[in-house]
Amino acid sequence: MVLRERHPTQRQHNTLPKFPDMPVALDYSNGSRVETPSGASCGPLKIVIIGGGIGGLTAALALRQNGHDVVVLEQWDGSNETGAAIHLAPNSNGVLRRLGLYAETIGANPMLRHTEYVTDGSQIRSLDLTESNKQWQHQWLLAHRIHLHAELQRLVKSRDGPGRPVDLRYSCTVKDLNCDTATAILDNGESVEGDVIIGADGVFSAARTKVKGGHLRPFSSGKSAFRFLVKKQDALDDPLTRKFAERDGELVMFLGPDSKIVAYPCKNNELLNFVCIHPSEKTSAPADDWNTGGSKKALLDVYADFDESARALLSKSDPASLKVWQLLDMETLPTWVNNKLALLGDAAHPFLPHQGQGGGQAIEDAAALAV
């Protein structure tokens, strides 16, 4: 069965690229069984997903669209959502578009320029990406994580679209897993049984302990990062920082010997998202929590040797969004599966932050698992 790409009801512009016909999921929503090319019959599976982050919800959406019954068990209680921004590079943006999620309709803006400075404020390069972006089948977008997560939640629960709505459950802490029976045991004693379990529970995955090599634990890469948001207008209003915010879609980097500042716009170019990477010994960030509040004084101390214009940008950080966390790495697991359990995203392969490819690979994992 071949369908054309589904387009949103309303678009913010009429320049979205057109794509050729592409195969999408067969709709089993009427509960019927379908003959496969080999002649064997198949029907919907019950999929239990541990973790309702970007990877877990993308998997839920893709599996729902393939006709499966999906339950997502998320430890978070659904309130006080936090987050900064994420690159949706052409690989991940393409997957989301094929699932019917058009990030430009939820405030994602294209990345149009890459500019680099050194610590004294000297510009070393500025690249207009207009032409190079034409090589990609899909746009390179910069999105607010909260908006992306909220849209994934809406799509998986919606009664519209192919498949049955996902059973998305909050405040569900998984205490144990049985990989032979595909059963998740919650801390309240409840058992949730399916045909397959997907562990999408992040870098400190409990599901990972059930696969070969699951004793491996994430370790510090030696770097930590501050992250925070700044209103673009605040940067425009200051003569010292105006040049860093004048052009829409511009990613700006300040490069030091052992530290760097990365800033790029999101939310229709209204917010600037910052990631400030530095040696871990310069801050006391915990290894097990990426929502620990950061200190503006500590931020400015770490970047004391940077140009005054860079420090002026940092001083505009929103205290409510200022966080600091350690960047973690991990040895390669020998396998990502055990019987009826499969791992996804950071549970399987933690990524250091680079062009949003941690989230991007989780999105690709989700699409691969749904095939």
UniProtKB/TrEMBL annotation:
Classification via Gene3D superfamilies: FAD/NAD(P)-binding domain
FAD-binding domain span: 46-370
Chain residue ranges for the region called Disordered: 1-20
InterPro entries: FAD-bd, FAD-dep_Monooxygenase_BioMet, FAD/NAD-bd_sf
Pfam families per record: FAD_binding_3
UniProt keyword annotations, A-Z: FAD, Flavoprotein, Monooxygenase, Oxidoreductase
Coiled coil: none
Molecular function terms, GO-annotated: FAD binding; monooxygenase activity
PANTHER family: HYDROXYLASE, PUTATIVE (AFU_ORTHOLOGUE AFUA_7G00590)-RELATED, MONOOXYGENASE
Family according to the record: Belongs to the paxM FAD-dependent monooxygenase family.
Name recorded for this polypeptide: FAD/NAD(P)-binding domain-containing protein
